[in-house]
Every structure is written in C-alpha cells, then in structure tokens.
Design a protein that fits this description.
This protein is of the alpha+beta class and 374 residues long. It folds into 3 domains: 9-136, 3-Layer(aba) Sandwich (Rossmann fold); 147-163 and 236-368, D-amino Acid Aminotransferase, Chain A, domain 1 (2-Layer Sandwich), CATH 3.30.470; 167-233, 2-Layer Sandwich (Dna Ligase, domain 1). The protein has 11 helices and 18 strands. The strands form 4 sheets. Strands 13, 14, 15, 16, 17 and 18 form a 6-stranded antiparallel β-sheet that branches. The chain has a 5-stranded mixed β-sheet with strand order 3-2-1-7-8, with helices on both faces. A 4-stranded antiparallel β-sheet has the order 9-12-10-11. A hairpin with a 7-residue loop joins strand 5 and strand 6. The longest helix has 18 residues, at 292-309. The chain is globular, with a radius of gyration of 21 Å. The two termini are 14 Å apart. This is D-alanine--D-alanine ligase. Keywords: ATP-binding, Cell shape, Cell wall biogenesis/degradation, Cytoplasm, Ligase, Magnesium, Manganese, Metal-binding, Nucleotide-binding, Peptidoglycan synthesis. Belongs to the D-alanine--D-alanine ligase family. Pfam families: Dala_Dala_lig_C, Dala_Dala_lig_N. GO terms for molecular function: ATP binding; D-alanine-D-alanine ligase activity; metal ion binding.
Length: 374
C-alpha cells in the first residue's frame, strides 16, 4: 500500500505501556511527536497507562520529557479512553468519554508503536495489529519476541553462526527450589558476571556480580523485573559499540557508521542513570574510533543479525569489541530508543539521515508493507 493521496497520512503514535520501561517509552514518543511533519501527517497520540488502559493522550512533546531523576513522564490514565477497532477497510479509533456517546476518530493508516519492554516490544501488540489488519512500524511478531528475550536471541544468533557470550538461564522457580545448582552453573561460567532480566531493557534491573557473594542479591534484583533471568560472562575490558540497521524502500538493508559508548564518572557499566540522566555520565563517539576493517565487520555482523532474527523496518545491534579485537553480539533491539540521548538516531544522522527523514522512512516502510504472512 502506498501513502494515502489527497490527505495527510493518519499516524497513531502508541506509547507508555505496562513494562518497567514506561517512562522511557514516553520520552521516545515525545521526540517522535516533535519530529513528525504535520503537513504530511495527522498525528493521533495514544498512551497506554501502567495499568493497561488506552487513552487519547496530549499531543505535547514537552510533557513527555524527563524533568529530573524523580520526575519521569507517565501516561495520564484519567484522559479519555480510546479503543482500536477492526473496520471493513482496516482499523479505526473510538473515544469513550463520560456522559457522551462513543466518538469515532476515524481510520488509521499506520501505527508507530514506541513501546519498550514487555507487552509491546515483545510481539504482543504486533500480534494485535496483525489481527486488526493495521500496518505498523517495525518488526513483526516473531522477530519482536526473539529480540526481546535475551535467552532466545542468543540461541538464534548462535545458530546463525554469530558470536555471543557464554550464559545460563535462571527461572524464579529454579532459584527458589535449587539455588545451589544455579550457583554452581554460574561459578562454572566464572566471575565477574552480569545478571539481567531476560526480557527487560533500558538497563533496568541489571546487576554485576563480581564474586559469588554478590550473586544472590543480583539475581533477586533482576527477578523483581522478570521471572526469567540471564546470567552471562562479563566482557571485561571490552568496548561497547553499536550499529543501526534500516530497511530500504526497495527491500534492501542499510547500516550506520558504528558508534561507541564510553562510561565516565562513577558508573561501572551503561546503567539506567548513565543512559538517560545527566549526559556527562557518558561520552558518545559517533563514529567510533575503530579501524576501518573493524567498522566494516561491525556493519556486516549487524546486517547478519538483523536478517537472522527476521527483523523488519529497523534495529539497533549492540556489540562488545573485545581486547583481542574480536567482536561479540551483545543484544539486538527491534525498537531502539528515540530519546535525545539515544544512539540510534545519532548514528543515522552521522550516516547522512537526519531525525525527521528517519521517521519518514519508517512510516513509509510500514505503509508499504502489508499485514499477515510475508
């Protein structure tokens, strides 16, 4: 389907959600709302409150910004409820307000889901859009689910011959019933080790166990965010390098120049505060200061990872550049952040595609792609 003619394209921007990354999703939405060209797009902001309610949110990018460490944005659950409905020609939106009959907002050409974490980035909302027959930005159901689950992502990447770090999975039940077995498996991996919610993001709930004495607290901290935890070898001495991947309108794939994140101050790793709070906690090198052959390998591996997972639209692939010069795939994000501090738009800007053009490309790709099997 091509972009609608004779009128502005109707874009529903969906953000917030039920995951621990609710605030970051709101910040991302604020940036995208600001970037969408209102001469080309009719924008409908839809917020999903932490309790799961869908509401017609304010079209006010500044309201969705981080004001400080204790002033994170959130969807206003008291706003008018909104429902996505299936129509004969696709999908439409209906608003329900007190003491008033339901009000139709009309059809939706494309949804831009800016949800991070579970119940949004993990294939759940993508499945709903598929059922509703509405086009949407980004990866489909399976790729979204695989990208969200760090354990299954490693399985898929390793099966495709891509390098990953050794790891083990710990479930809430196993930790409660067989903690000694878990400690033995982690000891076999070696310390230090990173402990992560398997289906989390934005570095929320991640801990580093330098010794066995720190393992229990790290696992329990991660389990507060996810009943499934990934424990993996720490890439000691490695540099953190990222690469953006974007589909082209003719079905090809483009990659960005690699970028490097360097942690400063008191942050031992790229945690939530280093990512989203004062920028002086990190130094971002775009492009990364790496040899040409390393940059070329990063870009080639990023494209391979994108295709191995079956991504569509966009992805950000994160790597560890090890002290010996080898590369290891750390993670793949099917809906990377679009905040002012986010690496994905910065890498594309450094590669010749500015923020508004990037947003336009993603909407055009979604309009071009149908729903269903493909």
């Amino acid at each position: 389907m091509n972009e609608p003619t004779g009128r502005r394209t109707r874009v529903a921007v969906v953000f917030g959600g039920r995951s621990s990354e609710h605030a970051i999703s709101c910040v991302t939405a604020g940036s995208v709302l600001k970037a969408l060209d209102r001469d080309r797009y009719e924008v409908i902001p839809i917020g999903i409150a932490p309790d799961g309610r869908w509401v017609l949110e304010a079209d006010d990018p500044d309201r969705h910004a981080i004001k400080g460490p204790d002033q994170l944005p959130s969807v206003d659950a008291d706003r008018a409820p909104v429902t996505l409905t299936r129509t004969g020609s696709g999908a439409g939106l209906v608003v329900s307000e007190p003491a008033a009959p339901p009000r139709e907002l009309g059809g939706v050409d494309v949804v831009f889901p800016l949800l991070h974490g579970a119940w949004g980035e993990d294939g759940t909302i993508q499945g709903m859009f598929e059922m509703a027959g509405v086009r949407y930005v980004g990866a489909g159901v399976l790729a979204s689910a695989v990208g969200m689950d760090k354990a299954y992502l490693k399985v898929v990447l390793a099966a495709a011959g891509l390098p990953v770090l050794p790891s083990t999975i710990v479930t809430e039940r196993e930790w409660a019933e067989e903690p000694a077995s878990v400690r033995e498996r982690v000891a076999a991996l070696g310390y230090p080790a990173f402990v992560k919610p398997a289906r989390g993001g934005s570095s929320i709930g991640i801990g580093k166990a330098h010794t066995a004495d720190e393992l229990d607290a790290a696992i329990e901290g991660a389990l507060r965010h996810d009943p499934k935890v990934l424990v993996e070898v720490s890439a000691e001495g490695a540099r953190e390098v990222e690469c953006g991947v974007l589909e082209t309108l003719d079905g090809g794939v483009e990659t960005t120049v690699p970028a490097e994140i360097r942690i400063t101050g008191d942050h031992e790793f790229y945690d939530f505060e280093a990512k989203y709070l004062p920028e002086e906690a990190t130094e971002l090198d775009v492009p990364a200061d790496v040899p040409e052959e390393t940059a070329a390998e990063v870009r080639a591996l990023a494209e391979r990872a994108f295709r191995a997972v079956g991504c569509e639209g966009l992805a950000r692939v994160d790597f560890f550049l090890m002290p010996d010069g080898s590369l290891v795939v750390n993670e793949l994000n099917t809906m990377p952040g679009f905040t002012p501090l986010s690496m994905f738009p910065r890498m594309w800007a450094a590669s010749g595609l500015d923020y508004p053009a990037l947003v336009d490309r993603l909407v055009s790709l979604a309009l071009q792609r149908g729903t269903g099997l493909r």
